[in-house]
Automatic annotation (TrEMBL):
Protein's cellular compartments: Cell membrane
Lineage: Bacteria, Pseudomonadati, Bacteroidota, Flavobacteriia, Flavobacteriales
Organism: Apibacter adventoris
Membrane topology label: Multi-pass membrane protein
Name this protein carries in UniProt: Cell division protein FtsK
SMART domains xref list: Ftsk_gamma
Pfam families (alphabetical): FtsK_4TM, FtsK_alpha, FtsK_gamma, FtsK_SpoIIIE
Family, as annotated: Belongs to the FtsK/SpoIIIE/SftA family.
Transmembrane segments: 20-43, 75-100, 107-129, 149-170
BP GO annotations: cell division; chromosome segregation
Length: 811
């Protein structure tokens, strides 16, 4: 407390002293100023009174009286002359600084300049005006007089100008280099504007110069000189341009080959060399300002941020999220491992051998591989047996073996043996728990790992959805499709954090996927205006699909601006903080679109869904949107060519006919499956037979409950807004709405190509799908193209451009 009050006391005293000192200085400056001004008017009258300082009867004319007259006499007349005004000026600035703490001019700088001019100006004024002591002061005159005896008038003048020059050099940092740089820049600017004007008058001037010079290096020097220092060269050199190569006199070769008198003027050129360097310096300066520098800077910034905060962690927002645990899945211990008795194996083997023998096919060896649902008998036929013969006898062999689900693989790819798959009389269920717990799945580094089940050789089968990149599933009702879908979703839920993956569920059956409602705020994506994340109303699907197309376009733009090709590279770059969130960059989660009953969707929502699906399937792979489409009826009008072409990965559960099998797998086999999760998987090459892992509804319920009860995001992942339009083909309505700016151009594109396709407009005019679609509707309304015809292009109703132009005018 005591200390504090002491401090305050000192502070108070200090400020009092400051105020008094400041005031004193201020008043002094005013007194001095008035005295000095007044001195110039009254000095003659007052000068004789100065000595009688204490005589009351004698007064002074000066406004500050005798003191004022004396001050003027001391500082101006006997002192430094007119520059004495600097003293009140300096005191005024100082008083303001002390009183108000405001530095109008920098005190120390002002003082140093003041001292210089207090010395310089009186001498200079004495030199110019002689004995005019009111200007130079007596001191100024005496010093000048002394200097004159030492250096003479000219010498003194030179000394004064030299000191002034040094003063300016020091004050304005005027080095020779800096001056000549400025001078050159100014000159270049001038020359450019002059040469621009003169170009028309003397177009060949430069060419003539080049002709005279052979050495390309000297040409370079010449052009530089002609541009920058030509004016400064002596006239004789300017005229005799052949001598100019000596400028590169630094090069011995040129020097040797030239006559001696030509070398006479190197001194003139030596001055030019720094000028050349200057120009080079300027060029290198502009290079430094190129954007490459900026990119480096950005990278440096990102490095700095990374070292300070570490890489960006998308999981941080839900840092406490716990991945589902294994005990949420049911253990079916009683049914695993596989049980098959030797008798059954022996019996089947014998049957196969005798059946084949009946058809005249001899076997040299046979091997059995026991799988969960089927056993594979691998046969090596005797030499000379044609494989096609066995393939043709497939149905007969199956009949003889009297078992459903026999599939003959002739030959087994890469082995040269023939495989006969015979169902086990006691199939073993593959539980989701065992496959999720498998090392293969646990240790996988895949982006979107999916564990389907177990292969015929009882191996867990894990594959990457990101690589597929889309999946088509088909199977008759009750054969395990829904379980299969759940197995896929479960695999992903066990491996992915909510920040990395979002699902869009379309479930026209309204029951299958509703379980996932609980994880809406963790794993689901939806349209901003929709209440339910899981879409059960087929009419809303179109908006969602189009919104996904918009999301896709947006993501492509982000990838483009980040100079990367895939979502993986993009996210890695984002994690390294090399992408600026202020420029719209964000961590992109994978989006998996699951459509449970595609046939139903096509039936109710029509063909409109086909285009966005095909578009997504074609383009979405790189930006992390993957499609899983399941259907009961794999007929050609549901799985059209366009869709099939973009879904190389397919899963087939049991189907009822060979035709369906061919539609889904492009081959037989799916009709011979035994159901209950028995499936075939292909990515375009070989077929892999598998037993799908079984995950029951209560298990899925437990998992979603486990995730849903944890802290989630405030809302589902919001897809970009998309407002549906009437694309039903009611033309007049479409045209009533505002005609697109590019309508006429699009019409010309369509008519000249005679092809009514939206993608043509998109491609030729670099438009997004939605806008191109809108224009197409307007073209239909104007009668330029025919109505929508599904996967086929619309008919073009105008045959030539002339007719079109007339029509456009009338419109
Ligand atoms: N992987 C499997 N392992 C064991 N049993 C299975 C498996 N998949 C399905 N099943 C059995 O088949 C039944 C029907 O399966 P699921 O509900 O998946 O058929 P679905 O093809 O979806 O039929 P729908 O199209 O009518 O919905 C299940 O209740 C189950 O008993």
């Amino acid at each position: 407390m005591k200390n504090n009050s002491n401090d305050e006391e000192i502070k108070r005293k200090k400020s009092l002293i400051k105020t008094i000192l400041g005031l004193l200085l201020l008043v002094s400056s005013i007194i001095l100023l008035i005295s000095f001004i007044s001195f110039y008017f009254s000095w003659k009258d007052d000068q004789s009174q100065l000595t009688s300082f204490f005589n009351k009867n004698i007064t002074a004319e000066n406004l500050i009286g005798k003191i004022g007259a004396n001050l003027g006499e001391i500082f101006i007349f006997n002192g430094i002359g007119i520059i004495a005004f600097f003293i009140p000026f300096f005191l005024f600035i100082l008083s303001i600084k002390i009183l108000f703490g405001k530095e109008i001019l920098k005190i120390w700088k002002l003082l140093s300049h003041g001292i210089f001019f207090i010395i310089w100006i009186p001498i200079f004024l004495a030199m110019i005006f002689g004995t005019q002591w009111l200007l130079s002061g007596l001191i100024g005159f005496e010093v000048y007089d002394y200097l004159k005896t030492l250096l003479g008038t000219v010498g003194t003048a030179i000394l004064l100008f030299l000191t002034l020059a040094i003063y300016f050099i020091l004050e304005f940092n005027l080095s020779v280099d800096a001056v000549s740089t400025k001078f050159n820049t100014l000159k270049q600017k001038k020359e450019i504007s002059v040469s621009e004007k003169e170009e028309e008058k003397e177009p060949f001037e430069e060419e003539i110069i080049y002709e005279k010079i052979e050495d390309p290096k000297t040409i370079k020097s010449e052009t530089q000189i002609s541009k920058s220092v030509k004016d400064s060269l002596p006239k004789n050199i300017e005229e005799n341009k052949e001598e100019i190569p000596i400028i590169s006199s630094l090069e011995p070769k040129v020097m040797e080959s030239k006559p001696v008198e030509a070398i006479q003027s190197p001194t003139e050129f030596e001055i030019d060399i720094p000028a050349d360097e200057e120009i080079i310096d300027e060029v290198s300066l502009t290079i430094e300002e190129t954007p490459i520098e900026n990119i480096n800077e950005e990278e440096n910034i990102s490095e700095k941020i990374v070292t300070e905060f570490g890489p960006y962690d998308p999981k941080l927002e839900l840092a406490r999220y716990k991945y589902p645990t294994l005990d949420l899945l049911k253990a079916y211990n009683s049914i695993e491992p596989i049980t098959i008795n030797n008798e059954e194996l022996e019996e089947n083997k014998n049957k196969i051998v005798t059946t084949l023998a009946n058809y005249g096919i001899g076997i040299s060896s046979i091997k059995a591989t026991i799988g969960p649902t089927v056993t594979l008998y691998e046969i090596v036929p005797e030499a000379g047996v044609r494989i096609s013969k066995i393939k043709n006898l497939e149905d007969d062999i199956a009949l003889s073996l009297a078992a459903l689900g026999i599939r003959i693989i002739a030959p087994i790819p890469g082995k040269g043996t023939i495989g006969i798959e015979v169902p086990n009389s006691n199939p073993t269920m593959v539980s989701m728990r065992t496959v999720i717990a498998s090392q293969k799945f646990q240790k996988t580094e895949m982006e979107l790992p999916i564990v389907f089940g177990k292969t015929i050789s009882n191996e867990t089968f894990v594959t990457d959805l990101a690589k597929m990149p889309h999946l088509l599933m088909a199977g008759a009702t009750g054969q395990g499709k829904s379980v299969g879908l759940n197995a896929i979703v479960t695999s992903l839920l066990y491996k992915k954090h909510p920040s990395e993956l979002k699902f869009v569920f379309v479930d026209p059956k309204k029951v299958e996927l509703t379980l996932y409602n609980k994880i809406e705020r963790h794993f689901l994506a939806k349209l901003p205006d929709s209440e339910e994340a899981i879409i059960t109303d087929t009419t809303k699907v179109i908006n969602t699909l189009n919104s996904l197309c918009v999301e896709m376009d947006n993501r492509y733009k982000l990838l483009q601006s980040a100079y990367v090709r895939t979502i993986k590279e993009y996210n890695e770059k984002f994690k390294e903080r090399k992408l600026n969130p202020e420029k719209g960059h964000r961590f992109l989660p994978y989006i998996v679109l699951v459509i449970d009953e595609f046939a139903d969707l096509i039936m109710t929502a029509g063909k409109e869904v086909e285009l966005p699906i095909a578009r997504l399937a074609q383009l979405a792979r790189a930006i992390g949107i993957h499609l899983i489409i399941a259907t009961q009826r794999p007929s050609v009008n549901v799985i059209t060519g366009m869709i099939k072409a973009n879904f190389p990965a397919r899963v087939a559960f049991r189907v009822t006919s060979k035709i369906d099998s061919r539609t889904i797998l492009d081959g037989n086999g799916a009709d011979q499956l035994i159901g209950k999760g028995d499936m075939l998987f292909t990515t375009g090459n070989e077929l892999i037979r598998m037993q799908c892992a079984f995950v029951d509804t209560p298990e899925v319920d437990k998992i979603t409950e486990y995730i849903g009860s944890q802290q989630g995001y405030t809302d589902a992942y919001l897809l970009p807004e998309f407002y549906g339009e009437n694309t039903s083909g009611n033309g007049s309505e479409a045209l009533d709405s505002k005609k697109d700016e590019l309508f006429n151009d699009a019409a010309r594109v369509i008519v000249s190509a005679q092809q009514g396709s939206t993608s043509l407009i998109q491609r030729k005019m670099s438009l997004g799908y939605n806008r191109a679609g809108r224009i197409m509707d307007q073209l239909e309304a104007a009668g330029i193209v025919g109505p929508f015809e599904g996967s086929k292009a619309r008919k073009v109703l105008i045959t030539d451009l002339n007719t079109l132009e007339q029509l456009l005018e009338n419109l």
